[in-house]
User: What shape does this take?
Amino acid sequence: MKNGSPLRLHIPESRFRPGDKPDFSYLDLPKAGEAKRPKVDAKASATRDLAYGLVRVMNEKGAATGPWNPKLDAETLRKGLRAMLLTRALDERMFRAQRQGKTPFYMKSTGEEGVAVAAALALNPDDMCFTSYRQQGLLIARDWPVVDLMCQVYANSGDRLKGRQLPVLYSVKEASFFSLSGNLGTQFPQAVGWAMASAYKRDTRIAATWIGEGASAEGDFHHALTFAAVYRAPVILNLVNNQWAISSSQEVAGGEETTFASRAIGFGFPGIRVDGNDFLAVYAVTRWAAERARTNHGPTLIELFTYRAAAHSTSDDPSRYRPGDEYEHWPLGDPIDRLKAHLVHIGEWDEKRHAAMVAEVDAHADASNKKAQKLGVHGVGPHHHPSTMFEDIYKEMPWHLREQRAEAEMARMKAGKP
Amino acid sequence: MSVMNMVQALNSAMDNMLARNPDVLIFGEDVGFLGGVFRVTDGLQQRYGETRVFDTPISEGGQIAVAIGMGAYGLRPVVECQFADYIYPGFDQLVSEAARLRYRSGGEFNAPITVRSPYGGGIFGGQTHSQSPEGLFTHVCGLKTVIPSNPYDAKGLLISAIEDDDPVLFFEPKRLYTGPFDGHHDKPVETWAKHPKGEVPSEHYSIPLGQAAIAREGEALTILAYGTMVHVALAAANETGVDAEVVDLRSLMPIDIEAIEASVKKTGRCLIVHEATRTSGYGAELSALVQERCFYHLEAPIIRVTGWDTPYPQEFEWEYFPGPSRVAEAISKIMAG
Assistant: This one.
């Protein structure tokens, strides 16, 4: 028998590359207020439309519509707006600091501030968060001092992580914020374990975790979904689809033929795709998933559909792989502009008050930066003493590390270093 | 005090810990209702309930990650990895996560987890059920690696591992589960009943991690070994009639350098025996340590007797296994040197 036509290997391609005119009209964007809101004990099958759709609450006029409207008071909305503005202010200053050589590295979250800030406000302050590297807004929304984050970025004498970690890989136990790993995706199943422990101890706290669409191709993502489903863990699994994993578009991660939220359906629990730049929608969906988890109905996978407006990191140049103005064509706008429009729409905000908030936030960020820099910057110091690198490998230092520390100290002494 | 084989001694350790500390949980493939494929968790689910001893999906990466998350919460999880050969899907979680957590968080978080796993050959398991991967883990700072050679030590060391605030890899020599095995595979199988270390208290006790034991005192030669190879070394020493000292390391990280140094300085000769493959194996580290610290006491070159640098072949198991005749030959060579 003769074979048919030869096979063809499919390689997904990014839709737009430098020089192309970005056009997102192919995206199927449902209107705000259209998505149904099932009960929190819904079976996976009842969330199928939500997994393939897009929950949106704010319409073009800035009005909140539909069953997902969280009906937040103005005070909470303004708190969210300020946290997003402060996150952006922090990012701008740390980006500049990197260009000035005061830190070797930084990662901005521009355009994605809503993802972290809205979730932080929808969760309880002691719910445990296992984040990826672009959710600094979570700490800001939890009122963790900006100066502390800056000290970590500068790896200075005030850095609680003692200069050991790449900038932005924070750890803030006091704010229920788990130590960040540079190995992407590892936190996803760890969060499930934490949630299982909380359930085992009959605690009331839940866990939440974040992963990028790129890293969701790692085994850890699938381990997390399996264990979360099997043990009905009280965990919220957030997948931030910001379209880009450095230079690879979301199609390369497996988003060409389906949504990432739909992955959950196959595992047997709800998946919800949400407009990640719609503060109200992110808040509402997180609240739904939190209530579900708290009432022992198990996990939820939330795909936060957004756009990475900035470079992947300070080491990245996006003009090499995507059109420079792509973000301006992104149809879901900017989370700060949209929440501001909503506040204005409901009569709780105006340009004057907004300008005052921006000025206050900028002044706060500048003052924090000044304070942090006084405690040292990368390469110049002051830092923690280099000998501290031998600490915290084990709870008690074994003999071989004591010997190596002495060896290092001897070498420093011979070189005339303190 | 009663006679226990290693399976029972390990079971007793977990029984004690489950009874003492409600934060101890045990999970892994088939460990719940069945009690483990090697029966090490037999009866524990029935005694302590399903939320404390339970089955998991076949996902070592998931099991270890979940244990790390539980450890961050404040529990003390014990994971059974059904065979050491299956541990690799969990490698990243051990190396990049459990091992680094205390360090990278400035001491805010730690991973007080224990990963138990049967290792080594002697059961015709072939290359996927016989490996000795300890050297992969001793190379990683932040992990502890422990390997017992008898029931009494197995219990005391496992209790220490579970109580330890750092992540511990606990490798169990599966060929020793039901009896001491000296490598003479054609001789009748022995049980732990007649072995002094088969006497195990049923109550809680612990053996500190990082302390070697002298399994046989001697003056002529030091043999460094752990796990199954302790018994092989003892057999070879007895059969050659050489007055060898056999040091049972018990803990590879941290390692008891004082015991090693004292023994080699006394005997002036050192033989290293392990079942794992040779190149970059743990024996290389031992050899370097002895050379660095005891060079002027050595009267002969250090020799390593190990598994060959091949996968563990199923049908040629006894050609691969570093048995007593290979050890005896190395003893003769060192004594002649």
The longest strand of chain B covers residues 270-277. The two ends of chain B are 45 Å apart (CA to CA). Chain B has twelve helices and 14 strands.
